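Students often ask what a 'structure token' actually looks like in practice. Rather than answer in the abstract, let us consider MALR1 protein, a protein of 132 residues. Its sequence is given first.
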Amino acid sequence: SSWKKCDFETDLCKALHELNLQPGWIRKNGRSGMGPPYSDHNGSDSAYFLSLSSETQSSSATLRTNVFLPTTEHVCQITFHYWISKMSGILIAGFQKHTENTITNIWQDSGELQDQWKVNTITINSTEKYEV
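Now compare that with the structural description of the same chain:
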């Protein structure tokens, strides 16, 4: 009942640490001229999304949400659209309790169906504060 939408049209969304946008991630749209995808999941070439830069030489890049409150009263569902190209590796969603140092992988896709937008929803239940 109190969902929030994040579409990257004006910024990096309140759910993401702007200072925690690791090197390699860029905010772009299909008109940016930086290679596929050339539109967002709705087919708009002017809509913004996050992408890994083709110049990224590192083996991984991370996005981290702000801290979410425990899900005792509400269910937390995060729905996201993603694109995996032929050059991609594995896209992983992880979960970290605020009181722990370990990250638990809760979803991944290795890109068997490449060069197309896909959608996924993850549901999170936690009795503690957490980040995704």
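One point worth highlighting: The first strand starts at residue 25 and ends at 28. Ask yourself how you might have guessed this from the sequence alone, and why that guess would often be unreliable.
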